[in-house]
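Hi all, long-time lurker, first post. I run a small reading group and we've been trying to get comfortable going from sequence to structure in the token notation. Rather than ask abstract questions, I figured I'd post a concrete chain and ask someone more experienced to write out its structure so we can walk through it together at our next meeting. Sequence below, copied exactly:
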Amino acid sequence: KQLDFVEDRGASCILECAGCFKSQHDTGKNVYTVVVFPRVTGGADEGGDGTNQNEDDEPLIPTNSPGYKIAVCSKTTFQNLLSTYCPTYLEKRACLNCLEGLLQLEQAIDNKL
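-- Answer (accepted) --
Happy to help. Here is the structure in token form:
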């Protein structure tokens, strides 16, 4: 903690956990382990070909957004979501605007192909 590392009990070996540490206690062996995830410089985007490799890793729509859930759900799930979360006309209109935005995004992607 004196070196400005943050304790994160769910940390793992990914770049987002750089600068974190977690402690584990194996009671069977009575061993206390501290796992440190060091800060790193550079990263995957320093490839020699000049392309941004993180571009493919980032989704076009945030995965926790309602638009993403609408885009990937089945028809039955969509109907359930619509009846549960969009009971009023105003909310249904907002959902329609979201669907229209997704359609425009899909058309833009198709045009690039």
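A couple of things your group might point at:
DSSP finds three helices and three strands in the chain.
Residues 46-53 have pLDDT under 50 and may be disordered.
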